[in-house]
Amino acid sequence: MNMMTLWHISGWEFAALAFAALLVGFSKTAVSGANTVSLAVFAAILPARASTGILLPVLIAGDVLAVLTYRRHAHWPTLGRLFPAVAVGVVVGTLFLLWADDGIVRTSIGAILLLMAGVTLWRRRGEDGAARQAPDTVTTRSGRLKARSHGVLGGFTTMVANAGGPVMSLYLLSAGFRKLGFLGTSAFFFLIVNVSKVPFSAGLGLIDGHSLLLDAALVPFVVPGALFGRWAVHRINQRLFEQLVIAATVVGGVQLLVG
Prior knowledge:
Elements lengths: L2 H4 L4 H19 L6 H10 L2 H23 L5 H24 L2 H22 L17 H21 L3 H10 L4 H25 L5 H10 L3 H12 L4 H21 L1
Helix pairs in contact: 2-3, 2-4, 2-11, 3-4, 4-9, 4-10, 4-11, 5-7, 6-7, 6-8, 6-12, 7-8, 8-12
């Protein structure tokens, strides 16, 4: 039995999944948050529950490529501030899933993303690049509070819907990260978070031999997407980069609300 027969997908549906995998690679090395479209494609073509387990290895492949590309630009003090809060968010997300149905989950996350995008835009009104806070100066009480709150939300959204990317994107933008620091820090963040989710997904039966067979066919498409993102990011100025990240977050939020 071949992979497409096993999952009951047509050639066109596989092409859509392949494009979604390519978009994962692009989002990891260029515009973080753009892979919210990939989440929707996987959930639309595959059984919703199974799609999260199939998408996870694809995301990890993109994370590995992003780490290899931007490893010298990661800001480890920021990662250290985030991970304890992310762990809390994962626990909260797990408890939330015990009683919330799919509709409540999607609506809640969509509303959070849109609210955070609005707050980010409001805070950045009238700011210029020179006036923005540098990431290594975010050591004030308000800066620590911001890191903790975004970490909890990031852990929550990645646990319930693999949708932590937009939350962390908005945090890194609000913390004053420029393009390469943004991409390097988010690359290590999501590689560590996504790898840590593998045992849980396997334990729930979301990752097995059948899912890995489909992953083996899709992961190669991540590579050209990542290479294109690496080429494109150096041709996007800082303001456009930030606008694209926020736009991708808004699209993802609307997608979750209306989906």
